[in-house]
Design brief:
CATH superfamily of the largest domain: Zn-dependent exopeptidases
Helix content: 25-40%
Number of strands: 26
Number of helices: 17
Largest sheet: 8 strands, mixed
CATH class of the largest domain: Alpha Beta
Number of domains: 2
Oligomer: single chain
Shape: elongated
Length: 691
């Protein structure tokens, strides 16, 4: 009896385990891990990107190492549709157009090979003139500057099949081995045998354009409550070097209104064709330079000096600039409406001063800084006294870096947004390029640490000499010190003669945080807990309702660098009396003293970086006034490998299935029609009572 119970329990457990197991139809697939897919985005006029069929696109694998391999299946393939697996160096507009026209291709898989790393001189699928509809006219043309000369524009093409990028070499080898075993022989007879194939799932629900997608998403239906697309957007970050209010107590302050501002700005985002970004040169070098300038100015410029000069410094990081300057458009929109830095209050409020564009006396934008040949270029359109004086200060404060004046020239940057609306806006851009990008991998997956020749040294203050003087770290440190000293002179009207210097080990660590390991010392110092996955921080702007952790840690880092220590760290630090002017955080004293916690009072916050087009009732989508980019929703995005049977095998399978079904119908009919003979009914043993 005990043995019977044991067997029964065992069988029950096994049946439960099987019930939660993989479905039979899924056991024929082998998942390909580490794939990054191309997805669809939309604006007011059209759609861009890629999409698979609703159930996924399937095709026979063909590994293409050369263009001849690809042409073979396009002109001589006998078992379409195919999914070519090819190195990224073959991914050009001409080849993609050929694949679209062939009608023999149902998808595409790209991978990075060793020869690609060595031979790839450029890889940028952005336009040659980025943000052409939102930039000032004639700032990019064949007569003047073509900023991104290697741009193919593929990022903005509408591709009718899915594309995935594989970086994991083991997964690429798995696909190649399957191809060699089943596909790579006797090409004329491929149609007669089983072939190794791929299934690419990346179906996009949105279509046509943003206006159409928004209308479909807003249709009230209990049967189909699906949202088909979401606006691109995240948060802009701002912080002031010194408080925007005055008062000895945090809960008894009043706004400082008789102040003008120097704005130091940079973009926060990048993009690529795939669900993966790095952005080493653009925007990481600009972000790191801005953070370093903020840290250095906090060290050398006191609050009394800014009060005497009636000038403060605002640091701003704009999000969504890749897609028609989403962040800066929203920032200017809020400023013009009196909604910055706080919304919904009057000019005479007692919380914070309302800042308008006319309160900005100088705007300094930090662009790409990855070219370490000690040359930087100062771009501007408005030739006024403020800009000329600051340019002269950059030159006189520089001992190593050479600054060149490039007037009447303006590369794509957030400054375009301000100048399009205010032609006299006093702004300039500092970059490593004069008339075209030195970054040949702009807005691509290959704009990584290798592109800017970055090497992490993990140095401390005592052994900072191990960082070479000709390294990117020292270049950014020198540039940050020059800009910081020039701003100091701009505010105080005297040269800086103190002993303050930029910590090159901090620059080394900041680059490491963005490009290699988000669990770095700087992010540990923020004391926010949690652990990031290894690899570069994702700097794609994303959609408005999804938290972007890169934005969060960057905002806290900027707050840490510009904050004031008000005491030792403790559980009551964040409970200090506070208003919109201040925030309080427990953070480490430095990256060398991670275990020493202090309580910081900071003037930092975020504002929405969502295009005004999605806020204005009955907005005219054809006007082109504001960015209109959205991102399609999707259910799943993955790659699976399987063995596709031959046509004869498929026909035989369906024939056997049909015969089996017909045979089962005959048996069921026969059994039912002769049930009285086959199944003799039992007669009652006793007659019923009360018959």
């Amino acid at each position: 009896m005990a043995f019977t119970k044991t067997v029964f329990i065992f069988l029950t457990i096994q049946s439960i385990n099987k019930g939660f197991g993989e479905r039979t139809k899924d056991q024929m697939y082998d998942n390909i891990d580490g794939s990054s897919g191309c997805y669809r985005r939309l604006n007011a006029t059209h759609q861009i990107g890629c999409s698979s069929k609703r159930g996924g696109s399937t095709g026979v694998i063909h590994v293409c190492e050369t263009l001849d391999d690809l042409n073979h299946i396009l002109y001589n393939g006998t078992a379409p549709p195919y999914i070519p697996v090819m190195p990224a160096r073959l991914f050009t507009m001409k080849i993609v157009q050929k694949l679209i026209n062939s009608k023999k291709v149902s998808g595409l898989v790209l991978h990075l090979s060793n020869d690609t790393i060595k031979s790839l001189d450029h890889f940028s699928h952005e336009y040659q003139c980025p943000n052409p509809l939102s930039s000032i006219a004639d700032t990019c043309s064949s007569k003047g500057s073509i900023w991104n000369p290697y741009g193919t524009g593929l990022l903005y093409a509408d591709i009718p099949f899915p594309i995935f990028y594989l970086e994991n070499e083991d997964e690429v080898m798995k696909i190649k081995k399957c191809f060699e075993k089943f596909n790579n022989f006797s090409y004329n007879t491929q149609v007669d045998r089983s072939l190794c194939s791929l299934e690419l799932k990346a179906f996009m629900y949105a279509t046509t354009n943003t206006q159409t997608c928004r209308r479909r998403s807003n249709i009230a239906s209990n049967m189909n409550p699906m949202k088909f697309c979401d606006p691109l957007g995240d948060s802009n970050i701002w912080a002031s070097l010194h408080p925007l209010v005055e008062g000895s107590k945090s809960n008894e302050t009043k706004p400082i209104r008789d102040t003008s501002y120097i704005v130091v700005a940079a973009r926060m985002d990048t993009t690529s064709m795939f669900d993966r970004t790095s952005g080493a040169n653009s925007p990481v070098t600009g972000i790191v330079t801005l953070l370093t300038v903020a840290k250095y100015l906090k060290q050398i410029l006191g609050v009394n000096e800014t009060r005497e000069g009636k000038r403060n410094i605002l640091f701003m990081l704009f999000n969504g600039e890749t897609y028609d300057y989403i962040g800066s458009q929203r920032m200017l929109y809020d400023m013009l409406r009196g909604d910055f830095p706080i919304r919904g209050v009057s000019e005479a409020n007692d919380i914070l001063p309302i800042i308008h564009p006319e309160n900005i006396s100088l705007y300094i934008e930090l662009s790409q800084m990855g070219n370490t040949n000690n040359d930087l270029f100062v771009h501007y359109l408005v030739d006024n006294e403020e800009i000329n004086e600051f340019y002269n200060k950059l030159q006189t404060n520089s001992r190593v870096v050479k600054f060149q004046n490039v007037s009447t020239s303006l590369p794509p940057a957030s400054l375009h947004t301000f100048l399009k609306n205010i032609s006299t806006f006093p702004g300039l851009i500092i970059s490593d390029h004069k008339s075209s990008y030195t970054n040949h991998f702009y807005n691509s997956i290959f704009d990584n640490s290798t592109n800017i020749q970055y090497q992490y040294y993990n140095a401390s203050d005592d052994d900072s000499q191990q960082i070479p003087n000709d390294s990117l770290q020292y270049f950014i440190a020198n540039v940050s010190e020059i800009i910081g000293n020039s701003i100091f002179e701009e505010i105080t009207k005297k040269k800086y003669d103190g002993n303050g210097t930029v910590d090159v080990t901090l620059v080394d660590e900041l680059l490491h945080c963005y490009l290699e390991d988000p669990n770095c010392k700087v992010h540990q110092a923020l004391r926010k807990g949690g652990k990031f996955s290894n690899g570069p921080l994702n700097l794609y702007v994303g959609v408005d309702h999804v938290i972007n952790y890169a934005t969060t840690v960057t905002a806290l880092t900027l707050g840490w660098f510009t904050g004031d220590i008000v005491g030792d760290g403790n559980v009551n630090c964040t409970n200090h009396p506070r208003n919109y002017a201040f925030k309080f955080y427990n953070m480490s004293k430095s990256i060398q003293q991670l275990n020493t916690t202090k309580c910081y009072k900071i003037t930092m916050n975020t504002t929405e970086a969502i295009s005004p087009a999605f806020l204005i009732p009955d907005y005219d989508w054809s006007s082109g006034e504001f960015s209109s980019w959205t991102e399609s929703t999707w259910a799943e995005m993955n790659v699976r490998m399987f063995l596709k049977p031959s046509a004869a095998h498929e026909k035989m399978t369906i024939a056997i299935g049909c015969i089996s079904m017909i045979f089962s119908f005959v048996i069921v009919y026969f059994v039912k029609s002769r049930s009285l003979i086959l199944f003799t009914p039992l007669s009652a043993t006793e007659s019923p009572t009360n018959c």
